[in-house]
Design goal:
This protein has 18 helices and 20 strands. With 589 residues, it is an alpha/beta fold. The protein has 2 domains: 2-296, TIM Barrel (Alpha-Beta Barrel); 333-568, Alpha-Beta Complex (Spore Coat Polysaccharide Biosynthesis Protein SpsA, Chain A), CATH 3.90.550.10. The strands form 5 sheets. It has a 7-stranded mixed beta sheet, sandwiched between helices. Strands 1, 2, 3, 10 and 11 form a 5-stranded parallel beta sheet that branches. Strand 6 and strand 7 form a beta hairpin. The chain is elongated.
Length: 589
């Protein structure tokens, strides 16, 4: 540890910026939810945050209780978005004696900002946080990633805007080997005054650094090794140790987002069950305080953060059954039914609930939306969860199959139960954003029987779906084009808009995923009119797909043969006579 064993020297001046460990060590807590984090950014976009089940309130209160148990105060780095959505949570953190500092407004890297964009994001987040907390915000940490040597211009902006300290430097390998004084708390000198920098503590040897400050490092490396490295720091470095963790790391039961790459899932979920025990060890062994407290910063600001002015008085949560005064009266809106088939989807229902609230908000001014949920013989708690979440809402009805009959049978059950002429079907896992119905519904004009979403359309898009699955799906589409009259790019999407009387009584023999393609094929062969709409398909985020790939491929080949025979043989009668779900329907798995 010899490279970082001397006292802190600010920008090379030996008289500046000395902090010593005898006054205790430093603790910061990142207050964010499990879906905000860097390992999931490739599959969870910021604009989708509203859909996920919020667990940050419970996890923050669990953290606060843990800190109270050890009589420890910390600095909480908070996104402006979180303070805007949950100002009462920020007030509770302050009320329990902790400091609140900024982590920017949303989860963005310094590389995503130009200088003035960074300034605007800082000022926006600070204003929201100060209103929520009723305290001045003195500190900052970048939300995503860390400051490299090329990013230190951001410290100039922070100092110019009156920020007193930052904690956005992570020494890693030889990144700051040329400036070893940057490995421990120091003052960075700017034209606008000095700003304290609190880098993550790291174990250093021969100019090579490895972070040992907490969070992911505590979870990925053996605890016995990390204890020794932290102990080595305490014995050899004449500066306070800085430890951090995230509130979501104390939540081993958080939903698993399986669409993320394997390495990122390891980074996010490995050893979550051990993290509380690890944090307890350090809180019980060493004495910690927050960064502002250590610098002696006064954080009370009179007149800021009164409840009446917090975060601009955000609107109350949207309810699926309610409409605000700006929406049209029910009789002026077009009645639409939305069918949601559900099979073993207990874990995803909170995500679905939040997504449908967004649909109601986005489409409710033009459409009188009624939601029809069909539990397709689930073996988990889907039925009871549907009742609990949607059962009391006046525009929601719930139906149940006693046994699993497949997604197509569930969709047709919902279509037959609908009291509207226009019926939509969506995926329970929302792999298609239901707000895309805004473009699809108007295409169901006179003479059109079905509008189907098409991610394989030239103007469509597929996100994060494995290439081999795309190849198989597009190959199947090519085969369907050779058999059916409509030359579409996509034949298997469950995301559709129907004219009820055109599809409710189709002779659909398949109940599962094959039945979705069969519905379109039977309608095509009966001379129905089908329009496809370019759409965006995303990989399923929560839970697992119910589709059995090999079985589904063989089933499609068999269905193609059946539809081909129907097309070439003389029609023996109207194919819209058998209701799907009869004894011939096959389940989805």
């Amino acid at each position: 540890m010899s490279d970082s064993s001397s006292r802190v020297k600010g920008s090379g001046n030996p008289e500046d910026g000395v902090l010593v460990p005898r006054d205790g060590h430093l603790l910061t807590v990142v207050l964010e939810d499990y879906f905000h984090v860097a390992p999931l950014k490739s599959v969870v976009q910021n604009e989708r945050w509203y859909r996920f089940e919020r667990r940050v309130e419970d996890n923050t209160r669990k953290t606060l209780d843990l800190l109270d148990e050890f009589d420890t105060k910390a600095t909480f780095f908070v996104l402006g978005w979180t303070a805007e959505e949950m100002p009462e949570l920020i007030r509770e953190v302050v009320a329990r004696g902790h400091e609140v500092a900024s982590k920017g407004y949303a989860h963005r890297s310094i590389r995503q900002f130009q200088r003035e964009e960074f300034r605007e994001d800082l000022l926006r987040s600070r204003e929201i946080l100060e209103r929520a907390a009723g305290r001045a915000v003195h500190g900052y940490r970048i939300a995503y990633g860390w400051f490299g040597p090329q990013d230190l211009w951001a410290l100039d902006v922070l100092a110019e805007e009156g920020v007193r300290y930052d904690s956005s430097i992570r020494p890693l390998f030889r990144r700051y080997a040329a400036d070893p004084w940057r490995l421990i708390p120091h003052q960075h000198r700017t034209a606008f005054g000095d700003i304290w920098e609190f880098p993550l503590s790291s174990w250093t040897m021969g100019g090579w650094s490895l972070p040992i400050a907490g969070g992911n490092y505590f979870r990925q490396f053996p605890h016995s090794l990390m204890r020794r490295l932290v102990g080595s720091w305490m014995a050899s470095v004449d500066a306070p140790f800085l430890m951090y963790f995230h509130v979501w790391e104390l939540d081993p039961d958080q939903p698993r987002i399986r669409a993320a790459p394997l390495w990122e899932r390891v980074r996010q979920y490995r050893n979550l069950g051990k993290m509380e025990e690890i944090v307890r060890h350090y809180l019980g062994t060493y004495r910690f305080s927050g960064l502002g407290e250590r610098l002696g910063l006064v954080s009370d600001v009179p007149g800021i953060g009164q409840p009446s002015s917090v975060a601009g008085n955000p609107s109350p949560p949207l309810e699926l059954s309610g409409h605000n005064g700006s929406q049209r009266q029910s009789e002026a809106r077009i009645p639409i039914s939305v069918v949601v088939p559900c099979f073993n989807e207990e874990l995803i229902l909170p995500y679905l609930d939040n997504t449908l609230a967004g649909v109601e908000s986005g489409l409710g001014s033009d459409y009188d939306l009624r939601f029809i949920f069909v539990d397709d013989g689930s073996a988990d708690g889907t039925w009871s969860s549907l009742q609990e979440i949607f059962g009391s809402r006046t525009n929601c009805t719930i139906h149940r199959h006693e046994s699993n009959r497949g997604v197509a049978a569930a969709i047709l059950t919902g279509i037959r139960a609908a009291e509207t002429d226009i019926v939509c079907s969506i995926d329970c896992d929302c792999t298609y954003d239901p707000l895309q119905l805004e473009r699809m519904i108007p295409l169901l004009g006179d003479g059109v029987d079905m509008v189907t979403a098409s991610p394989y359309h030239p103007d469509g898009e597929v996100k994060n779906v494995p290439g081999w699955r795309l190849f198989l799906s597009k190959s199947l589409s090519s085969l369907y084009r050779s058999v059916l009259s409509h030359r579409l790019a996509t034949y298997t999407s469950c995301f559709r808009v129907y004219r009820k009387d055109a599809v409710a009584n189709l002779d659909v023999r398949e109940g599962g995923f094959l039945g979705v393609a069969e519905m379109l094929g039977r309608l095509d062969l009966d001379g129905g009119s089908i329009v496809e709409c370019p759409a965006v398909l995303e990989v399923r985020l929560l839970g697992r797909s119910k589709m059995k790939t090999l079985r589904t491929i063989l089933g499609h080949l068999r269905l193609l043969a059946v539809l081909g025979m129907v097309r070439v043989l003389p029609k023996s009668g109207d194919s819209r006579t058998t209701v799907a779900g009869d004894s011939g329907a096959r389940p989805s798995n």
